[in-house]
Amino acid sequence: MNQFVNILKYAKPYKRYALGHIISNILYALFGALSFVALIPMLDILFEQKDKTQIITKPVYQGIAHLNSFYKDYLSYQVNLYADNDPQKALLYVVSLIIILFLLKNIFGYMANYWMVFLRNGVVRDLRNKVYKKTIELPLSYFSEQKKGDIMSRVTNDVTTLQYSMLPVLELIAREPLTIIFTVIMMLIISVKLTLFVFIFIPLSGVIISRIGKSLKRKSDRVQTEQGAILSILEETLTGLRIIKGFNAEEKFDNKFKESSKRSYHFSNKLFNRQNLATPASEFLGILVISILLWYGGQLVLVDKSLDGSSFIAYMGLAYNIMVPAKAIARGLYNIKQGNAAAERIQEIIDSPNPLKDKPNAIVKTGFDSEIVFEDISFKYQQEYVLKNFSLTIPKGKTVALVGQSGSGKSTIANLITRFYDVNEGRILIDNLDIRDLATKSLRNQLGIVTQDAILFNDSIKNNLKLGNDNASDEEIIEALKVANAWEFVKDLPNGIETNIGDSGNKLSGGQKQRLSIARAVLKNPPIMVLDEATSALDTESERLVQIALENMMKNRTSIVIAHRLSTIQNADEIIVLNKGEIVEQGKHTQLIAANGVYKKLVDMQSFE
């Protein structure tokens, strides 16, 4: 139930729709109750229970104790006043009244649903948007602990589960309780004894239904978790299909998927069979209550004589009218238990703390003036430090290259300067300002990033490049492509810069994709460039073209180059050699070669590759 209250918070922006829904439901419930009460004078006419010779006068209200006889006499008085003691005319009047009451009931029922559509769909939209926004705000460290498929399942399946399980309960909050309240009032007016008898049995049926749904949340949670696992396997399969086929691992992955699908099958069977039990159980209990009511009510009519037949028939209609919302409420509570598991999984993302959140008075930096300083920094992803007491100063306009074997901490520097992670010890300063004191958006505005894997999106070349500069003109885009040595192939494409490059840019070669990612960084035009092994995945010809593009891009900019191929960084102002997270050598290419140390060994090793 706590999760349901959390979901209700998202309904606050839609108060006016909620108000329209509540008002419509009040009128729906009122006219619904009155429509059954209007049956009494019609039944009296049909069964001729009134003495035709009796002159009917306007009744006088004598207090709540005589309310039962007053409302019946008042209805009879109004009918006879209109019909002038003509039974056929009276019947036509009563039938017309019933039609009008049911029409009004259904009009307001529709209006209640009309307002609820906006409220419910608005909550779903806002919830999905909030989960997605939080997903892109969370640091990369969060996703290293999570499966992508499970995150996708929460944003899609779990939100959909809420839409069709928990959120429909919003419709019940006002309608069904109001229907019950108005119906109970009318039932009490007709017969206090019979109403008290009814309320002995309804709670008993409610207890039985609640026991049926007791374990539903646990079963629902299992189903949703397994759906996340299925999505994870599917995502991994589509991403690694080339490797799966290349290693003849189709059967292995097929079995893995079948196992997860089998678990989902068993969990779903248990969940849906428990759901299916709710309807027949509640229906049988409803019929049981009605049957007992018929027996006891019949005693009051035939033996006790405290209730007339027409009132009893109308009362049975009201009793049925109360069973429908009672069953809906029971079903709603049942659905809340099912939706609770989905809500918890969604809320888990929303409530996840973001350790990289901006400080309350974060500084907005608009330019880069002097230097970048890594001041005695240490960092670990898990247990072991990957950087230890690392210190480095990069003056504005200089190119610094970081080299070393895999795992030496090179790419970690790129993750820290961009604040994808925060240092454990020490500080990173830009113009003597700790980057943790800067607004993250303003920090990243100063940085252009080109990664080893050219990450492009299923869109046009133009829109991929405009990611960092949304206001760029076509001329500026073409100029950036020329700087990145990419215009030579883009101009020959069918639609030029408007050409769609497919999922992850799969319509292009590796070198073409990398040059587009360089063009994207050029178009952003930041003062600091971070190049994370931008040429390591390319063939020799592509590397040559990309290297020319990189050299064009780095002119008049401060650059941090993380290099695997050492031939690409020989002209760097300073080369930093890392080993196990520590600086072991630094200097220019010629100096390091002359020193005949670690760097020279790395160069010699690559010369034989």
From TrEMBL:
The chain crosses the membrane at residues 26-47, 90-112, 180-209, 277-297, 312-330. One of its GO terms (molecular function) is ATP binding. It is a multi-pass membrane protein. Residues 372-605 form the ABC transporter domain. It is found in: Cell membrane. CDD domains: ABC_6TM_MsbA_like. Keywords: ATP-binding, Membrane, Nucleotide-binding, Transmembrane, Transmembrane helix. Gene3D superfamilies: ABC transporter type 1, transmembrane domain, P-loop containing nucleotide triphosphate hydrolases. It comes from the Bacteria. Residues 22-338 form the ABC transmembrane type-1 domain. PROSITE patterns: ABC_TM1F, ABC_TRANSPORTER_1, ABC_TRANSPORTER_2. SUPFAM superfamilies: ABC transporter transmembrane region, P-loop containing nucleoside triphosphate hydrolases. The keyword Cell membrane does not apply. This is ABC transporter ATP-binding protein. It comes from Mariniflexile aquimaris.
